[in-house]
Amino acid sequence: MDALPSRTRGGPSGRPILVTGSHRSGSTWVGHVLALAAGTGYIHEPFNRNTSPGICRARFPANLTYVTEANEAPYLAGLRDTLAWRYDLGAALPTMRRPLDLARIARDFAYFEGKRRRRARPIMKDPIALFSTEWLARRFDMQVVVIIRRPAAFVASVIAAGWYRYPFRQLLRQPALMEDCLAPFRSEIEAAAAEQPDPVRTGTLLWLITHHHIETLRQRHPDWIFVRHEDLVQDPETGFRAIYEPLGLEFTPEVAAGIRALSAPKRARRLPSLFRNRARVSRNSKEAAGLFRKRLSDEEVRRIERITRPIAERFYPAPATA
């Protein structure tokens, strides 16, 4: 099917950008850094079932919902409106339960309306959309940035966030996803759905299924941008400059200052007023790459590396030194 042009009928002035990868890969940080560019706007996780229906009225039935042209009907119009900065007040208002909800709806509506009037270029951050990336790129003419993260660092982050109980049954309830993307892991997913593995094994399996698909995407789409989280945190300014150029984003001194603010150690961070609303996504770039060694034992790290090696060596050919 033909893509839906993003620059028609008064819509956004540039191709939408999708920032994806596995969850806990730094995609929120990357999305906000890209949204420092003039003429852009940030959209947070339309595929997330906790996202306000005002932001995206399409409702996704499962984690990692797999959308293709065959099942797109329930999602297409809602995502089209999201990427056109059309906030759905009619869908949002029934979700109000307290005064704070009204304040949130008013804030989100004002943000979307401002971006719509300025025809801002959407930067959609959504790791939950990973398995739907090809459909999104085709349907909405999106440019794609995919974040890769070292296995042990991913597992440590999942455990630290308390996200080590995963609803693997939701994957099994998607026959097309299992057949098209996850067939090599069917037996492991079935076992994990029957009895939740320990936290390290849960995180390791999640890394395997997401990064196996990321490697498939990398083989199919060499024109997309694939970047390792560790490379970005080691030298954020250089790393993001290299991403800005192929996306057609202007890398200005103001952007460089914003990157420094969003990459500073927490104790030393003094964000300019323009960036204070993004403080929660900043990264201590000097510590992030090796933080997993403080959270996992040496034995756990070796276990993760042994299980993930066949796929991890595609992204990290040299032994881990961080």
Descriptive labels:
disordered N terminus; single chain; 322 residues; Rossmann fold; 16 helices; alpha/beta; five-stranded parallel beta sheet; 48% helix; globular
Textual characterization of the structure:
The structure is a single chain. The chain is an alpha/beta fold and 322 residues long. It has a single domain, classed as 3-Layer(aba) Sandwich (Rossmann fold). The chain contains 16 helices and five strands. A five-stranded parallel sheet has the order 2-3-1-4-5, with helices on both faces. Helix 6 (151-160) packs across helix 10 (199-220) and helix 10 packs parallel to helix 16 (298-315). The model is unreliable at 1-8 and 267-280 (pLDDT under 50).
Roughly what fraction of the amino acids lie in strands? Answer: 5-15%
Q: What shape does the CA trace take?
A: globular
What is the second-level CATH architecture? 3-Layer(aba) Sandwich
What is the first-to-last residue Cα distance? 45 Å
Class from secondary-structure proportions? alpha/beta
Count of β-strands = 5
Number of domains: 1
The biggest beta sheet, please?
5 strands, parallel
CATH class annotation: Alpha Beta
Total DSSP helices: 16
Name the poorly predicted regions: 1-8, 267-280
Q: Return the string of H and E elements.
A: EHEHHHEHEHHHHHEHHHHHH
For the largest beta sheet, what order do the strands appear in spatially?
2-3-1-4-5
Please compute the radius of gyration using only Cα atoms: 19 Å
Q: Identify the quaternary structure here.
A: single chain
Which percent range fits the helix content? Answer: 40-55%
Mean pLDDT: 89
CATH topology: Rossmann fold
